[in-house]
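Write out the 3D structure for:
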Amino acid sequence: MEEQPTSIILSVGTELTEGSILNTHFRFLAAQLKGLGLHMQRCVQIPDDLQIFRQELGRAVDCAALVIITGGLGPTSDDLTREVVAEVCEAPLRFDEVIWEQLVARYADRGRKIARTNRKQALIPSGFRVLTNLVGTAPGFSGAVKTCTVMALPGPPAELEEMFLREAVPLIRSLGTTDPATSELIATALMISESVLEQALQEANEGDSGLSWSTRVAHDRIVFTLRGSRQQDRKRVFSDLVGRFGRIRIREGDVQPSVLLHRVLEQRGERIAVAESCTGGLVSKLLTDVPGSSRVFWGALVTYSDESKTRLLGVPEEVLNSSGAVSAEAASAMSQGVLEHTPAQAAVAITGIAGPEGGSAEKPVGTVWISARTRRGGHLCRVFHFHGNRDAIRRRSAVAAFVLTECVLLGVDAELEY
């Protein structure tokens, strides 16, 4: 199997290393480079220090196919990228008259006179290609050093992202990178802990030393990537996980549970209404985060108190008195009340104890009942025992609500647990 070319990102700026501003370059560039078939070896934040910058760039060009430098292209004395690249890459700086004329014209268009210090931005390492900046004033540049391509991009995110997509992507593709889809499989695990998923992957791998994986834990899912070996081996491991956990909890691609529910509802031409207690509107918030949610989301009721459950959803007082608000009877009555009080074709209701107070020996903190039903008669009501702080319990409850509702809509009675 052909190895993926490696890449390194060097982000320059003392404002980054001191935590004055958030570095968004790594997330944007790493995701883009992964999609272009490059393996990200490391991302490094560097202060405006000549010696450190020289050392890091020297190391990077010796062990990567592509090095991207962000920042340090301004007109001030602490903008060091041009000088360091010129020194490390043995490419003396040259003054580019075309760049200077463009800078002078841009300032004139804004009714401003350009300063002499801006002449620094027209200096480009010899043999390097200029990358035009259509958003700001600092041009970037790209060139070959030994077996490595070095690219310098401006620091402001809007300038960096526009330049990367327009100028850098075609250059990177010309390096002969491979499509990552031919060497990896990305999938999503829902309502499965990281340790349980790891054990399942190890058992499904059957000792294939050529296959590896990595996981990324998000607040609503775990995204895992199978790499190496043969495509049929990656698919075999994926199929094994589907067999263990079900096709609802193991999905191909990086997908959010709210998006999955949105897709099913849209395919069926149906809308959902929600009754929330312990989640306090979080389910509705996550559903409406999805573009086009107005096509599938009718609305929601946050019925936090017992009185609101009775007055707004018609939950009988005797149910609340005998079984309590956190019970199968209460959750079922809430979802039934949603269908009775709205025109939605599907409903989900959540009631539980998010903590840190309110638990008991019989119903400890983390006890959550969820009821999902449709007008066609489908209904599932499940109890979950979540662990973690208040925020974690509420988020896990929301994920369980999405997954349980999808089960009802698809007619699947899956075993769900965390």
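The CA atoms of residues 307 and 317 lie 9 Å apart.
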